[in-house]
Design goal:
Elements: H1 4-15, E1 23-25, H2 27-33, E2 36-41, H3 51-63, E3 71-74, H4 78-90, E4 94-98, H5 104-112, E5 116-119, H6 124-138, E6 141-142, H7 148-164, E7 170-174, H8 179-190, E8 196-202, H9 207-214, H10 237-246, E9 249-253, H11 255-269, H12 275-286, E10 295-300, H13 307-316
Helix pairs in contact: 1-7, 3-4, 3-7, 4-5, 7-8, 8-10, 11-12
Length: 321
């Protein structure tokens, strides 16, 4: 997919726009889990999520060829913000398709970054169909949810983390359509490290876990988790192959466990996290007995969660979790 010089080139491009995000060892999280934890804070990017890295690298690659008429893609939020952010910098027309009933605040952010927003379909996979129709009608480039340049871009967070803390025993990372975990696996391998990569899915959207376990693409009828960054019904075959070769296991976490992890992040670090961003901590809390005393990385992939939902979770949480 890419080699180390290509990844370093992507990192130079990304760092020309945004600084590296920190990886912070939080003592209260260590007390909570019995591990030495390093949180990779992708909630500290200009779009509040790791996806911006992939958008920058993908759009830069397009601009080295014939200039596209425009770009269109489907998203539940972070991918759309990424493309809108990168597309505006390149002066491109961007159309983003989101499912009906998508997060109001994510929709507002996509528009604020300069994209036209279209609401269509009951979920991400139906929104993808509308995006393909728009691409055909308008002559736009249809940006896929998984592409080598998107993976290379988001892999720059992994390069930062693994060079700063190369002796991690394991890293927990959520799985949406797979770019984040695939970038992490590829970077780990390029650096010759032995760190275990543990993927996280929702119990309500576990197509990647089923596919990982059965060794083939398995789709689900629904993806009903509130953690929309993991609300996937149809795995990407190329992502699944990388995950099957490079991940140690995939852990399922419930919405209740994710909400508890969101509250733990708030209590222990005063960082806000979206559902997918908190899922790695939820999985570690589930597996804390087997990880006692180890050095663990948690990818806090983003903080884009609606204020009303976040406020209710924090308000309902006990003062001491």
């Amino acid at each position: 997919m890419f080699d180390l010089p290509a990844l370093e080139k992507a990192a130079s491009l990304v760092h020309s726009v945004l600084p590296p995000t920190p990886q912070i060892a939080w003592p209260l999280l260590a007390e909570r889990t019995g591990c030495e934890i390093f949180v990779k804070h992708e909630n500290h990017t200009p779009t509040g999520a790791f996806k911006v890295r992939g958008g920058l690298v993908y759009v830069d690659g397009l601009m080295h060829g014939e200039r596209p008429k425009g770009l269109v893609s489907a998203t539940r939020g972070n991918h759309g913000q990424s493309l809108a952010f990168a597309g505006r910098r390149a002066g491109l027309a961007i159309t983003i398709v989101v499912p009906q009933g998508n997060s109001i605040e994510k929709n507002a952010a996509i528009r604020a970054f300069g994209a036209e927003l279209v609401e269509s379909g009951r979920d991400f996979d139906e929104a993808r169909q509308t995006a393909a129709e728009i691409a055909e009608t308008r002559g736009f480039v249809l940006v896929p949810p998984f592409h080598a340049d998107l993976v290379r871009g988001v892999a720059t967070y992994a390069l930062e983390l693994l060079r700063a803390v190369p002796d991690l025993d394991a890293i927990y990372v959520p799985i949406g359509l797979g770019s984040g975990i695939c970038g992490l696996i590829k970077t780990r391998d390029l650096l010759g490290l032995k760190t275990e990569i543990i993927g996280i899915v929702s119990t309500e959207a576990d197509c990647y876990a089923q596919s990982f376990e059965q060794g083939r693409v398995v789709t689900t009828q629904t993806a009903t988790t509130f953690a929309d960054g993991m609300a996937c019904r149809v795995p990407m075959p190329e992502a699944l192959e990388i995950i099957r070769q490079g991940a140690t296991r995939i852990v399922r976490v419930s919405d209740a466990e994710i909400k508890a992890a969101i509250c733990a992040y708030h209590a222990d670090t005063h960082n806000m996290t979206e559902g997918a961003g908190a899922a790695p901590l939820a999985a570690l809390m589930q597996e804390r007995a087997k990880q006692q005393g180890k050095r663990i990385g948690l990818i806090l992939t983003g903080a884009n969660i609606d204020r009303s939902l976040y406020a209710k979770m924090i308000a309902d949480a006990p003062l001491i979790a």
